[in-house]
Chitinase 17
Amino acid sequence: TLQITPNNPAVDIDQEFYRKFTGLKSQNPSLKTMLSIGGWVDSNINDKYSRMVSTSENIQTFVDSVLRMMSDYGFDGLDVDWEYPRTDADKIGFSNLLAALKKAFAPFNYVLSAAVSPLPADLGFDIPAIEASVDFINLMTYDLHGPWEPETADHHAPLRKRSWETADNNVEYSVDYWIENGLSANKINLGLPLYGHSWKLSSDVAVPPAPASGAGTPGPFTNVEGYMGYFEICLAVQNEGWQVVQDPDQLTGPYALSNTNVVNWIGFDDVAMLTTKSNFILSRGLGGAMVWEISLDDFRGS
């Protein structure tokens, strides 16, 4: 239909999750509650996003549906998380979509943001056009490494380049890239991960880049190979004796090692690294931070 639709109508509509979420403004009147569309799974089901931005009529159909949903449920803005526009046509269409949303949102003072790739060189982003339309971007500075690189265990959100690296694949480079190509620093919300990626080590070497033999054991609750929420990492350290190793230079967050015969290695950001990244945000004059995602945090403070 090329219209915005709830991800889970039974929860979002029937159980009134949308209204409960926007209702938080009754406790904090200055709070802004935003709807997000996209994400990795929805963006890659088929070519619907490419079709949606392919004509001005299709864009208008989508924009009109967004305005209805925002009004019906009391949202204050929209985050567009298309992962990712790739072709030249996508690039133009994505820019046209953001421009149309900006124009439609203006009478209502709605907020418009986009969740974008940290390393967009080969993707369909017209950065000056994005700058002209959005209030801010959510820069997804994580998943820079993962079990899709099965033979090498490494931190998935390094802050800065390490001496042994040949590629510029880190948070600092990503921020510099977006700024140098036309985005205002104060429109960048830096993405902070509340999860880690894991591997099974294939040797006694644990310092990255560590030889590995595929994805690590799933967390007990998230249940995805090569992935654990921060709360699961805390439980593993606290209850299973996983050893935490810090980077003395704070170029990356720590990694933790299981005390099993086949060692599981997981890299993650802890409180110390999030503090370091927060200071980086302040030092570079960025707009702020965002986290992916809140349910993965150490919500019991353990």
In short: The chain has two domains: 9-193+270-295, 197-267. The chain has a mean pLDDT of 97.
